[in-house]
Amino acid sequence: MSRYILQRLILLIPLWVAVGVVSFFVVHATPGDPAAAFLGQEAQFESKEAIYRRLGLDKPLYVQLANWIVGAAHGDLGQSFFLGRSVSDALLERLPVTFSLTSLALPLATAVGIPLGIMAAIHPNSWTDGLTTSVALFGLSVPEFVTGMLLIFFFAVQLGWFPVGGYQPLTKGAVPWLQHLTLPALSLGLMQAGLLARITRASMLQVLDSDYIRTARAKGLRERVVLVKHALRNAIISIVTVIGLAFTILMSGAFITETLFQLPGVGNLAVSAVLRRDYPVIQGELLLISTIVLVVNILVDVAYSYLNPTITYS
Amino acid sequence: MILTRNALLATALALSVGALLVALSPTAPTSAQSPECGVTGGTIVAAMSTNPPTLDPMLSTTTASRQVAVYIFESLVTYDETYAIIPQLAASWTSGSNGLVYTFKLRSGVKFHSGQTLTAADVKASFERYLKVAPGALQRFTGFKSVTAVDALTVRFELTKPFSFLPNLAIPSPLFAVLPKTIIDKYGEKEVRGQDLVGTGPYKFAEWRPDVAIRLAKFADYRPDTRFAGPTGFGGRRVACADQIGLIPVVEAGSRVAGLLTGAYDFAEAVPITSVPQLEANKEIDVEIVKPKWGIVDELNHGQPPMDKLAFRKALVAALDMGQVLSATSFGNRPEYIRVSPSIFFPEQKSWYTTAGSTMYNKPDLAQAKRLLAEAGYNNESIIYLTNQNYDWMYKASLAMAAQWQRAGINIKIELMDWPSQIQRAQSLKGWHINQTGWSPRLDPLQTAVSLKCGSLSAYNYCNRDMDQLLDQVNTDLPLKQRQAIWVKIQQMVWDDVSVIRVGDYFEPEAIRSSLKGYRPFYVIPRFWNVSKGR
User: Fold this and answer.
1) Under DSSP, is residue B343 helix (H, G, I), strand (E, B) or coil?
2) Which of A139-148, A190-199, B184-193 has the highest mean pLDDT?
3) Dihedral sign, Cα of residue B8, residue B14, residue B16, residue B18
4) Is A143 at the interface with chain B, CB within 8 A?
5) Nearest to B53 among A32, A82, A261 (CB)
6) Which ipTM value was assigned to this complex?
7) Which residues pair with B434 in a beta bridge?
8) Residues A170-183: pLDDT tens digits?
9) CB interface of B with A, residues 130-169, below 8 Å
10) CA-CA distance, B526 to B216, in Å (whole number)?
11) pLDDT tens-digit readout, B395-409
12) pTM for the whole thing?
């Protein structure tokens, strides 16, 4: 197992190189100009050239790429054009916010989605199934900015229970931290819960139709044991895959939710960086996201073999 | 494992429910009374629509940077409420040698936030840096020769030719900010950041967390300018009433409105017109209309056929019903937010407002448009129209104009992109004909040179030597009356040549909580000096 994990981790290196090079060209080929974002629309040739010189954008593209690769190999992702700090610092500053949001949204999604899916699967095509499926589909299909705005309207503006936005770190107390994160976590969590409920229902239905479930019931096991120990344990593989996917999506930055709730996380940073064409930050974000995707995939693979001992990696 | 996870989930849920039960506990500001402010103290929190790219006052012409700079920094001269020039750091000035020498006496005892006292050496160092780094400064100060610190409080500017030196100094785009010489020496042409953002303004820099908040703190040693009865324009007798000002970038307009309604923000910039009824119904909120704010303008690429033909450009004007276009920007039912006006300057800017040259403006005539198109030899070529949705009113205006041009038989192709892409595409000067934009109020005609002068990037290949001569004349130290007469000729020529199409005025609503006392909208910069947070 550890050999397998090591192999997968080594794979990160070619992935970083590929993502780095591709993102470099994609970012530079995108229309828009950091100098224009800096100077405003009344920029003149001379001022733009001065900005290019200051940001190192006057050098040929291959020199810029080489500089970036050499820097990245030494752990230096460059300096943000606008933030007055290194890309690594900017990302490290934003990660705790996104991680906090994920740490609330994902448990919420799991706590709501899996029971809903199980309930729907126990009595397929019943009114319970119809209701839970409708709730799940609603969560899935309503865009997160609509959910977000509705939550803000009812719980922040009308009831005044939560702030409309902003962030307080956990170090300033658990209560303000929770107050600021509850609405965005609900907005994101409900959407992911919908997805989880659908997957749980489908996997459970498939498992519940198996011979070994019939056998378990035939030998007189209690229904609860059949469901939890035999059915859910076998259905969990696909559910874990979706949880991994949800974790990746949440950690890669909930672009809309973070912007709507003014949470200074990696999603918010990505939106700002794209809007002002902060090339080094966009590249850093892509590198971070690809790393998260790969690491989470490894963790999910490890979880597979833990959940189902018949799965081994050699 | 499942049980353990369930236990964890239960804990997380319990915590969330706990948070539901905890109400926000508002913290009361520490406050005191003052004759100029009424109540002093507290923090004014303003939800702004954009993020500044830099807080270095000299580096950017963006509105967002200007909005912060005027709190921290001051200039030798500035504009008052009527857009006339008034002294700020200058005690007085004289001009001699036929307008070739300007000598400024500085106010004595003015303190920088760092504790240093303002001297002529600081002004000299700041001006020399301004010329090097400020976008457009070299073009505006072409007749500048030298600046000398004559003594501790006297600074002399020498010019090679007379030009409108004072308006050039006063225009805050970017601001000619006076910083201590020590800071200028430390940074040179690099971006000044952090605690080195030192000026002489009523508020000092406290903290900038990009994309999160800018925090400004009251400068205790600020001495209000007693030459004035009260604050005016960007200057006058400015007093820091609140202890702190927080400028929070809230890019989602809906979030700005929600925050204002809950009292999280005291002020929200650029609220959507559709939210106005809801805000007006709230007794604790006042909605203000900022006049002037945006001039809707179509910039034309004169180097791209058929835009090089005057008849074609005139056909564009002949096809437009400006009232309808402006109505589209304000959802059709809010006349107080729009104004049909052909003037590059706004009616509020009395010195420069004129309707000169507007004979064809807002006189839609399809027959004439078609005749002009035929005269231009227009053969249904695609006309590329650049626009964006970052500014909703620009987008709505573009859709309305595109429909009207199509009705006249012009084959308009809208290309929708984001604002940075649009700027870059426009400045590439290739592959487009019409660029939808908005001009913030110009404070002096000399600012129009960047959009009208031969060879200027933002003039988009427009070049008329007669226009250049007029622009040179208006950028002189002639008496105001004569400059006004020249400006009338310039605007006449703008419409005669159809250099750009000035569509009309769009005013953005902004909203404040009524607990904020003394706020008056002005220009594109919310001013929170002499504003108190009464509770």
Assistant:
1) coil
2) B184-193
3) negative
4) no
5) A82
6) 0.81
7) B300, B385
8) 999 999 999 999 99
9) 133, 135-136, 138-139
10) 14
11) 999 999 999 999 999
12) 0.84
